[in-house]
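worker-3 :: picked Thiamine-monophosphate kinase
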Amino acid sequence: MSGEFNLIDKYFVGRQNQRKDVYLAAGDDCALVKAPANVQIAISTDTLVAGTHFLTDANPAWVAHKALASNISDLAAMGATPAWVSFALTMPEPDEAWLAPFCDAFFELANYFGIQLIGGDTTKGPLSLTLTVQGFVPEGKALTRCGAKVGDWVYVTGNLGDAKAGLDVILDDALRTRVAAESLEKAHYLSTPRVLVGQALIGLASSAIDISDGLISDVKHILKRSEVGISLDVSQLPISSELVQFLDDKVSAQQYALSSGEEYELCFTVPEHNRGSLQSALSHVGCKFTCIGQIRPQGTFELHDNGQKLDWELSGFDHFN
Ligand code: ADP
Ligand code: MG
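worker-3 :: tokens ->
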């Protein structure tokens, strides 16, 4: 892109404190970094395309937050500690009115989590953002999707459903008059990656995943990889008062909680014998967490409401629409 180097220097270089494990960040052909002993490096890449993952006229600061938070959430789901990020930016023209607020928000979140931008690429084309995050996890201790066992308890962090209601607002201006519309729209963009929860779950949780496609869709990844089933109690789903006010119906709110994607909350399983340690470990973190069900033998997929079996068509919750 013409003026690429000016843009990179102006917006991406020298915005953060240098981490001790970064020997060379943006500016040369490669970044040079060094991981501490006895860790594995967790790496994840995600792309956000304008028009697909966010509207082209969306607030650039919110887009920056969403792009980085969704990537850091993948690290959180493995119990990893964020360290480095690379950023490939494609944009139609150098657009400083967009870049300035984007970068301010990007570095604010990056600094909060101590993750350093170590390089990237800047090209001309339709607006799209690709981030690769890297983090450290104690060797052999990463949380994965494959350790859930029959009898383990199923938990989620935070509240569920707000991001889907926020998307409704983003896509339909008529909904802006509803109660809580503005705060739900904000919730869609401004999730908090559960990094401290992920770290605290190491050695306690038998499996974990972050909710990017919707609880039902994502929990199915755990079930498949762990070769187990599940029973969920919808009356236990953590739902915000804003969501109930916005939808004005408890059952709809529960169904939103089951299907809402881009929540970036964690869903995890914990064996009975670790439940006590879980309470004390997470009380230090200060993040809400709720038990919503239990792992059952493979082939079982049940929804209950206070002990009453529900016959909701589960396939309807499989895709975020
Ligand atoms: P090369 O042609 O060797 O790939 P580039 O011109 O793409 O180099 O990039 C020059 C330097 O600027 C590299 O160190 C690269 O990591 C960094 N850089 C380019 N784009 C970005 C970006 N969007 N964010 C952070 N660093 C970037
Ligand atoms: Mg390049």
